[in-house]
Structures are given as structure tokens and as C-alpha cells.
Amino acid sequence: MRGRKGRALIPPLNFILLPADTILVQAVHPVRKGSEFIHADDRAKVIERWKESLKEQKEVNYDLRMSSSSGHVMYFLISGRPIIREGRVVLFHYQALDIIDHKVQEQNLIATASAEVLAQIAGGFAHDFNNLLTVINGYSEILKMSIEENNPLRHKVNQICEAGKQASVITRRMLEFSRKNRAEAKLVDFNVEISNQEGIIRHIIGENVAISFAKSPAVGKVMIEPSRLATLLVNLTVNAKEAMPRGGEITIGTEVHDVNATNEQAHAQVPHGRYVHLTVQDNGEGMPEDVRRQIFDPFFTTREGGKGIGLWTVQNIVHAAHGHIFVTSAPGSGSTFSILFPMAAAAAAGESAAMKGTAAGGESAGSITILIVEDDDVVRDLVNEVLRKQGHVTLSARNGGDALQMARQFEGHVDLLITDMVMRRIDGKMLSRKMKSIWPHIKVMFMSGYGGEILDGDLKGSVFLQKPFLPQDLIDKVRDVFLG
Q1: Positive or negative, the Cα torsion across 166, 170, 171, 173?
Q2: Domain 362-483, CATH
Q3: Nearest 5°: phi and psi at 246?
Q4: Which fold is adopted by the domain 4-98?
Q5: Backbone phi, psi, residue 248, to 5°
Q6: Would you tell me how many other CB atoms lie within 10 Å of the CB of residue 453?
Q7: What is the pLDDT of residues 14-25, one digit of tens each?
Q8: What is the pTM of this model?
Q9: Which residues does residue 213 pair with via DSSP β-bridges, in sequence order?
Q10: pLDDT of 173-185, one tens digit each?
């Protein structure tokens, strides 16, 4: 008989327990004392339940652990009944049912529940921090723009801005852990992203592994979700470290690589074009060919205690970004992971042109009337200030109820509603629907310290601004609502 995944089930074991406290086992095992099978920590419980059943002449049910001759622990559900002759118990009959599958499910549920609680806590912290960082980063940028380049304070403000950006990355990762952040691909400069991750990577590898970076200048940009690129770099670095238990060296490099008719045979199934070539090389143990062919299989691992999903995750990230990954390795010669990501040259040019157009055109969306609904007073004041400087007319409300009352009393027309998603009583989703009943053609932009995953149903495709955001992010989103 076999259970899930083909695991052999142990047939029920029938125990005959004599009043003289001698336990016999009748099954596929030879006759021997049952106490030899019972886990040492559970023996006292078994004796106590046996005495209870003997005294009260009743059936008992309980679970216990049993140990095989090899030391493997098994879980059983014990069901026992006394056999009574002439008013007294002459022996006991027990049946043991293998419940290891049940125990596995139980542990998985406990782990899942714990992870869910941690995820909710992380998401809540990230939401609150994102509100604070919106204010810190926003006013830091405004302050920086008001200080001349040669002013000695300019450098200090720049440091504040950079620290704010790094803090934003941390909260984004907290949201990813809480699964409340929608992964959005965008143009990423590989060299910049690797520089951002250097501190984390050096911390991961420890002191017995050296690391060097060989980044070619101006390798261009790739369309990818930044946090996934960071995950890729970390997983490849961890894999390289584990291949060098006695220490070694890791080299992370970038360069521009063209695939064309002259080298297409070296890149099977890779379309012609220009790519950003990322390499992660180690001088560790290397892999034989049979291992190399399996390294991207889920749950395959050669490391004791390893989970085997790191390289599988890497491959999924590469494929999601329309990239290609190759591995060269041999025992004693280390390993090199080569990844080709299609360079977004045209998209990069478009982004650059759009940024120049914004800087030159300023109020490209024209002057519009905007209703801002945000329960954080300081964030609301910041949004008001930024948009008014762009020449827009702004109205503001602290919550959905105040916003609806203002809308009914306002004699003009509101072009755009900018609302926080999470508010008491009337949240952003409900508010947007009610506003459309007043002004059917009003446009809506949601903002939140949580991720875009909270958009659902008929709100999919709505404009969303992730907190924390910089003033220019807000300006660009407003422009995109009307011109995008």
C-alpha cells in the first residue's frame, strides 16, 4: 500500500498488551517488546494511558512516536481496547496507524501560519515607513533643488537623499516578503544595481571568500524588476560561496555582448541582438556533467541541508526577463554562470527623451483641478505643494467622507482624483466609484504604502503610485494620466 508521492505506508501494527506489563507486537516484525519501539520521550505517556485503560476498562486513543532500528522516527495513532473475560481484563488489543502524512501537513500549516503573521507585520511596518519616507525623500529633493551647486550644504542634502533611497529599497523588500507588492519591470542600469547590492553581497560571502567586480562602463539598461535582479545576484553569490567551503574567489562582471551570424553557434536559440552579459565566476569545486545538467531542476541539491530552489529561482527570473542562462563547469575548475539579458537600447532612448521633455516642458499636462485624499497630513501637504508648483489647482481632504462632501459642494469640475488606497470607513476603491457617480469622466490615481497588489477586479489597469515617491515621480504620473 502506498500513500502520496508513492511513499510506502506501514501496515497497522496489532499490539497485544498483557496485564503483567508485557507488550507483544504482532505484525511484520518478529515478536519483541513493544517498549523497544516506543520513543523514549513517549514511554511514560504510554504507561500512563495503559494504566488508565486497565483501571477503567475503557478504550483509549492517543498518538505517539516510535523509533525504527535505524533510528528513524515514525508517528502513529494508537487505538486500544481491553479484552475482558469474566469481569476482568485479560489482555489489551492495540492498533497503530501510520500518520506521518498528517504530521507533515500539520507542520506545514504551522509554518505557513507563522509566515503569514510575519508577512502581515512586515507589510504593516513597510506601509508606515513608506509614508514617512515619502515625506523625508520628497522634502529632501525639494530642498536640494533650492540649494546652489557650490553651496557646501548641497553635499549633505545629497547624502540625505541617497539614504532615503536606500531606505526605500528596504521597505520594498519588506513588501515583497509580505506579498503586498506588485512586481513591475522597469529599465535598470546593471552596473548601478550591482553597485547597490555590493554591500549585501560582501556581507553574505563572509571573510574566507574574496570577491571582485569587473564592470565594463556603459553596458546599458535592461527591462527587469529590480528586486528580482537583486534576488538573482544574491542566489548566484550564495551558490558560488557554497562551492568553495575552504575559501576562494568570486568575480562578478558585466559587458556588452552582440549575438550575430559570426557567433550564433556558440549561443544556441539566442536571437541576434545586443545583450548585457552578466557573469558570476568562482574557482571552487566545480561540477561533473551529470550534476551540471540538473542544477536548474527544482529541489535538486548536492548540499547537505540545502533546499535546491536557488538556481531554479535564478532561471525563472532570467526567463521572465527574456534572457538566457548558460553554465560551464568541471570538477576542480570552478563554475561560470553566464546570463544574456536583451539590452533595452530603444526603450532607454525613449526614457531619456521623455525625461528631457518633462524637464523642458514642465506642465505638459496643462493646468488641471486635482482632488487629493490622504489621511496622513504631512504626505497630503507635500502632494499639494508639488502639484501647485506645477500650476495645478488642488483641493484636499483627510478622508473619503470629507472628499465626497467637498465634491458635492464644489461648483467646478475635478479632473483628477488622487487618493490613498487604505483609509478608514471609505477606502480608495470605494471612494473612486462614488466619485465617478458624481463626475463620470473623472480620472483616478491611487497611491499606497502597500504595493499595487491591492488593486483588484475592475480596478486592474488603474494608475498606481507606489509610496515612497519623489516629487518628479508624482509629476510624471499626473502627466501620464492625461498624456500616457
Answers
A1: positive
A2: 3.40.50.2300
A3: -100, 15
A4: Beta-Lactamase (3.30.450)
A5: 165, -155
A6: 15
A7: 444 444 333 333
A8: 0.47
A9: 252
A10: 666 655 544 556 7
Domain segments of the chain: what residues?
Answer: 4-98, 187-346, 362-483
Cα–Cα nearest to 259, from 251, 269, 247: 269
Q: Do 4-98 and 362-483 share a fold?
A: no
* Of residues 458, 415, 459, the one with CA closest to residue 435: 415
CATH number of 187-346: 3.30.565.10
* Cis-peptide into 468, omega within 30 deg: yes
- What is the reported pLDDT for 184? 67
Q: How far apart are CA 81 and CA 94, in angstroms?
A: 6
Those residues whose C-beta lies under 8 Å from the C-beta of residue 59, and which sit 6 or more positions away, are 53, 79, 80, 81, 82
d(CA 88, CA 22): 17
The residue to which cell 541576434 is assigned: 272
CA-to-CA distance for 197 and 187, rounded, in angstroms? 17
Which residues have CB under 8 Å from 473's CB, separation 6+? 465
Distance (Å, whole) CA 73 – CA 71? 6
All residues at 6 or more sequence positions from 414 whose CB lies less than 8 Å from its CB, including other chains: 369, 370, 371, 395, 407, 435, 439, 442
- The 10s digit of each residue's pLDDT in 326-367 is 999 989 889 999 999 998 864 444 444 443 444 334 444 567
Cell numbers linked to 230? 537583486
**How would DSSP label each residue in 307-359?**
-S-HHHHHHHHHHHTT-EEEEEE-TTS-EEEEEEEE--HHHHHHHHHHHHHHH
Rounded Cα distance between 284 and 293, Å, is 18
